[in-house]
Amino acid sequence: MLLQWPGAPALRARFATADACYPVSSDCDLQLSADGLANGAIQFNGQQLGYQRLLLALSANELANCDGLAALRVLLSPFAVGEAEQPILLVLSPGLAAPTAVYWADQGNNAARLLLFEGEVLRGLALQNCDDAVDFFYSAVGTVAAPDTRHLLALGPEPWAAAHRLTSRGKPMNKQKLLVIGNGMVGHHFLESLVDGGGMQRYDVTVLCGEPEPAYDRVHLSEFFSGRTAEDLSLVTPGFFEESGITLRTGARVASVDPAACIAELESGESFEYDRLVLATGSYPFVPPIPGNDGEHCFVYRTLTDLEAMRASAASSKVGVVVGGGLLGLEAANALQNLGLDTHVVEFAPRLMPVQLDDGGGAMLRRKISELGITVHCATATEQIVPGESARYRMEFAGGEYLETDMICFSAGIRPWDQLAREAGLDIGERGGITVNNACQTSDPNIYAIGECALWGGRIFGLVAPGYQMARTAASVLLDEEAAFTGADMSTKLKLLGVDVCSIGDAHGASAGAKTYSYTDEVAGVYRRINISEDGKTLLGAILVGDAQGYDQLLQYCLNGIELPAEPDTLILPARDGAAISLAPGQLPAAATVCSCHNVTKGDIVGALDGGCVSVGEVRDCTAASTGCGGCAQMLKDIVNAELAERGVEISTAICEHFPHTRQELFHLVRVGQIQTFAELLKKHGRGRGCDICKPAVASILAANWNDYVLEQPHLGLQDTNDRYLANMQKDGSYSVVPRVPGGEITPDQLIAIGEVGKKYQLYTKITGGQRIDLFGARLEQLPAIWGELIDAGLETGHAYGKAVRTVKSCVGSTWCRYGVQDSVSMALRIEHRYKGLRAPHKLKFAVSGCTRECAEAQSKDIGVIATENGWNLYVCGNGGMKPRHADLFAVDLDDETLIAYIDRVLMFYVATADRLQRTARWLENLEGGLDYLKQVVIEDSLGLAAELEQRMGAVVDTYQCEWATTLEDPERLRLFQGFVNSEAEDEHIMFVEERGQIRPAREDEREAPVVVVEDVA
């Protein structure tokens, strides 16, 4: 045993492992052995923990009493001087067992000593009585002939801060009191910047937070209604305040600030002195002065408390209105729709998001949002709010029109929260906002203002990225570093109710001489516009609605003045001859800003790679790029991959930032580890909370392996909308119903049942190319009743909503056709019933033809079977659609059992090795060795997997369940299918128009015009 402190009564620091920080107290048992030093492991309270850096603090007394190897005591003997309680800090890395040389330096009266253990690399550091660990380290390293100091520099800011707090124990602190009012996103970023810069050595920091919770993510606030908790939204790293030494007071509302006395007083009467003050008070929602705007069910959309109140109100409401069609207004509309309300947006301006979008972009956004079931009222002014007749309130508009609603959310813009500064006598802008200079200082040099409360150059910056820039500037200035805020790029990349909306630079083309290109695709729902300089060489601004593709490159053209291509319209038009114009990462200058939120340039990214990072995740952790709004994620990935390729480094194929694995690797981890849930997989092999990429992919993997009911609680949150409601959502918010018709064979009774359901619920009915019957126009609340009737008729789910087997198309074969040589219908039925429960990386379509005339078009399917006089020919990996591929002939003249065995093996090998959302056609094209290799695996059993693949498929077959039948037996799951959280009423917003004897969704103009609309059905 090298070091052992049973009980460790005088140990006063923490040791940091690779996973967490653990406080060392009087009731712990810490043991460190020679083997542990070599292997990077420590025994703590009987548990073995691995470490990357080990931070130990002990006194001279404890050092003298250490049992174990004498070598370490000899090495540390220069520190066993002075008072017995003098603290010593020891930083160890794995492998420190037998250092070959010792260097140490004495800084005179300060008695600061540096101990370097030299081996193949620099291994450890000890500091005693050092006022400034960082400064001392840099000065001392210059006098030491150490072979490599970079190893220690990788320790990061927190160990240095810990060193300073430890070694300054008992000495006069001489720290200034820094008071921060506000702990929103910008205020917290300021604290992180201050800590990272070593500011805790100079300042005693207190934060006064008016809300009951510390900083949380307001950008994704609406996700609170889709299941994310306050803890999920928190921006505070666990232990941040405790480890940094910052004092946080929540629920502490400041009543006044006295700049002359340097005191801030709370509403409770408690006061706080300060030397420096940072105002990060943010903004408050503007509520238009409309009579009746103060009703019990009238809200603003700003805090978690606001959202809690809205959720409570929604429980007794059917209709909700958002006043304001800007960014926050549309986020609020998303929240109301998530609460199950019939949602309206009322905007005074003639278009949505009038600041970011032009008329064309606003019109496209309105159209796409209307298709999602939200009613938009533009150019509408509310004159008063009075009691309603059919709802709680009536909103009376100018011109005599009105709208009845049960709750109202005001999101008509923000105003800077400058009241404290105004009453304190600080300079305030004419229209509000605390005036600041380039250093973010107010008219009082000891008071700073950052974020939405600050007015710089006559402007309020209402986005998070400029606020973060202000936060970094103020932190740097407080640390006496050169820094200045000189304005910010206001470009935004958003996804509002699932619709991409991007605005870059001079989006409206207001610059002198600006020229405009615009492109509209009403079929795809896409609008693009770019504004270029008069000479055609520079991009001034851009707008993208409906498709964010190209945002990253357009932003870089705009921010960095990169010369445009000869035909600038190619940047927004569909690709010509299949080749789109793109801006390569190599074209970006080193000074190009990639992440505006954290001010990360391309040069910073390259520097992180030069410093040893070898993946997007590592660069993200090092630079914080893409951890703000996330809009630069793709550009970050492109730059990192391009730079790594130039260095000859293999590029990461991780499925996303939360798992350092491909889909195939995740599949095997789930299989080998018998992992049953996403949470278990994330804990063992991932990090963070997951995302829209990895969650559905893992859901598919879990289903393919264990075939659990997809709406079980552990799996429910992983499903997309279609899988969640076991139906395909259509453009107007209604759903389609697709019962399985195996092989295209259906009994008259089943056909009558489908017809009766279509007639009873007035559904649009269509026979598909895959020999199924689609029923369109079902409301969410109607789905259980419809499926109850279909299941009673002997039908079952067709899995049309899932990445699963969709259809097995067949001809009538030898039973009826004079050309048929095999019973194709029977084989189609056998195949469909066998594979109908299989979840896969993408949808699967099969076909069986009874002869080589190929009436079922089997050679255009993922699995195609064609009858011959001697058996069956098997074709694999074809598909139609946008990129058609003819299937490859895999094996000929197979008997029934061999055919099924080969299909089992092909499908399970595909499920286990394909990428997410990869069709079988692309999978085979990318499979090393191609068709010949697949034949070796499946037919020749070259990998010895044949029996296992068949066994896996057998498990899927044995555990099949009709998901709708299971759902109908579970009252808890049936609650998912209520159109409103508090009512079983129908969604009256969904409207249909009769055409050709059937219904179709009403167009926007038909909703507003007096047309004949199909009445609601029971």
Topology, element by element:
Layout: E1 3-7, E2 14-16, E3 21-23, E4 28-32, H1 34-39, E5 41-44, E6 47-50, E7 54-59, H2 60-64, H3 70-76, E8 87-92, E9 101-106, E10 113-118, E11 122-128, H4 133-141, H5 150-153, H6 157-167, E12 176-181, H7 185-196, E13 203-209, H8 230-233, H9 240-244, E14 247-250, E15 254-258, E16 263-266, E17 271-273, E18 276-279, E19 283-285, E20 298-300, H10 304-314, E21 319-323, H11 327-338, E22 342-346, H12 359-371, E23 375-377, E24 382-387, E25 393-397, E26 402-405, E27 407-410, E28 414-416, H13 419-423, E29 434-435, E30 447-449, E31 454-455, H14 464-478, E32 492-496, E33 499-505, E34 515-521, E35 526-532, E36 539-545, H15 551-560, E37 593-595, E38 600-601, H16 602-610, H17 616-623, H18 633-646, H19 663-673, H20 678-685, H21 694-706, H22 713-716, H23 721-725, E39 728-729, E40 735-737, H24 748-760, E41 764-767, E42 773-778, H25 783-792, E43 805-810, H26 813-816, H27 824-835, E44 844-849, E45 863-868, E46 871-876, E47 888-894, H28 896-913, H29 920-926, H30 930-938, H31 946-958, H32 963-968, H33 971-974, ...
Parallel strand pairs: 12-13, 12-18, 13-14, 18-30, 20-27, 21-22, 21-27, 22-23, 29-31, 43-44, 44-45
Antiparallel strand pairs: 1-4, 2-3, 4-5, 5-6, 7-8, 8-11, 9-10, 10-11, 15-16, 16-17, 19-28, 24-25, 25-26, 32-33, 33-36, 34-35, 35-36, 37-38, 39-40, 40-42, 41-42, 45-46, 46-47, 48-49
Helix pairs in contact: 7-14, 16-17, 16-18, 19-21, 28-31
